[in-house]
Amino acid sequence: MGTIITFLIVGLAFAPLLLHITQSPAAPVAATSYHAPISNEVPAGTTLVVGDPTTQRVLEYTGWDKKLPFKIQWAAISGGPGVTEAFQAKAIDIGSAADIPPIHAQWVDIPVKIVAFRLRENPLAHPVYVIGVSPKAKIDTLKQLKGKRIAYSAGQAQGAVVLRTLHALGIKASEVTLVDLPATSDVYTGALAAGQVDAAPIGAGLPAKRYLDHYAGDGAQVLRHPPFRDDPGLLYARAETVQDPAKAAAIRAYVEFWARAQQWINANREEWVDAYYVKDQGVSAADAQVIVRAAGAPEIPRDWSDIIALQQQTVNFMAEGIGREPFDASILFDRRFETFAADAIAHTSSASNTALEAVKGN
């Protein structure tokens, strides 16, 4: 692998963990196997600590949080590094991330299980990331990345985007300088603007637009990465959590509400834009539309066979790229949860169609 430069960044990103870490540990429960059926009834008194901000906002807005059959504690944690660190501290039960964090967790001996998986329809038309170019870099095409400094985070999806981009271009990692930076908040766009790096993967929607709004006049650019999918999103939990029958039942219920939240956002885009992005996040209506258009429509598969094969390709690719041992990707998945999300959407759609037909009949 090429040269890696590490920037020391100290922040308060994991401050929300402190409250959970200092709490007394819960009483031990009898563990069950990954093959035991998951009940559709959640025992009274069950609590889940969840780091999934987008779903939180949907459930609170729709009032569905009041319908959860368990007590929920929301943790102000999002993104793979924060969630995985929270798992290590046993501070949360379940969180949302892209496809790389569970793989990285396996490599650093933090046992996790994927319990829900989401893709995007037409992923090449709706990439999650683009390659931002520094105003000082003098890069007009991706081929010119050779010899440049590129922001990189091995445990995040952005790191995979970098390695896949280089691979597609036939550029070896040893032919660039990978600058080790966490892909949190505006770290990458700030590093680009300051000339600390020449290129970095940044969000394809609003982050890219804002970056160009501020720096295009100085020569900044945004380039599409080569045609590979970067869209996986998922829910994952601590392995010991899904082995607790009560917690597993609660996670089943949460996965179902998570799926309905994805469906609701897609079906109520204008309402979501106004209620969340404009009124809650303070984003302009125009910028909010950029976010929604970039995201495309969700696709939640009922069969994980192709998903596991896709994850295996990612494991193998990343293992070779960063010098780790490959492993069987299927161990990351708890297939007891496989159908719950898709079935929840199908049930909701069926109920909606039945109600619509009843209205028409009257």
Q: How would you concisely characterize the structure shown here?
A:
With 362 residues, this protein is of the alpha/beta class. It is 42% helix and 15% strand.
- SSE order: EHEHEHEHEEEHEHEHEEHHHHEHH
| Rg from Cα | 21 Å
Could you say what the CATH architecture of the largest domain is? 3-Layer(aba) Sandwich
* Major sheet summary line: 6 strands, mixed
Sequence-ordered SSE layout with sheet pairings:
Elements: E1 3-6, H1 17-21, E2 47-51, H2 53-62, E3 71-74, H3 80-88, E4 94-97, H4 100-107, E5 112-120, E6 129-133, E7 149-152, H5 157-169, E8 177-180, H6 187-194, E9 199-203, H7 206-215, E10 221-223, E11 233-238, H8 239-242, H9 245-267, H10 269-278, H11 285-295, E12 298-299, H12 305-322, H13 340-361
Parallel strand pairs: 1-8, 2-3, 2-4, 7-8
Antiparallel strand pairs: 4-11, 5-11, 5-12, 6-9, 6-10
Helix pairs in contact: 9-13, 10-11
Please describe what this structure looks like.
With 362 residues, the protein is of the alpha/beta class. It folds into 2 domains: 46-119 and 231-345, D-Maltodextrin-Binding Protein, domain 2; 127-223, Periplasmic binding protein-like II (D-Maltodextrin-Binding Protein, domain 2, 3-Layer(aba) Sandwich). It is 42% helix and 15% strand. The protein is built from 13 helices and 12 strands. It has helices at residues 17-21, 53-62, 80-88, 100-107, 157-169, 187-194, 206-215, 239-242, 245-267, 269-278, 285-295, 305-322, 340-361; strands spanning 3-6, 47-51, 71-74, 94-97, 112-120, 129-133, 149-152, 177-180, 199-203, 221-223, 233-238, 298-299. Helix 9 packs across helix 13 and helix 10 (269-278) packs across helix 11. The radius of gyration is 21 Å and the shape is globular.
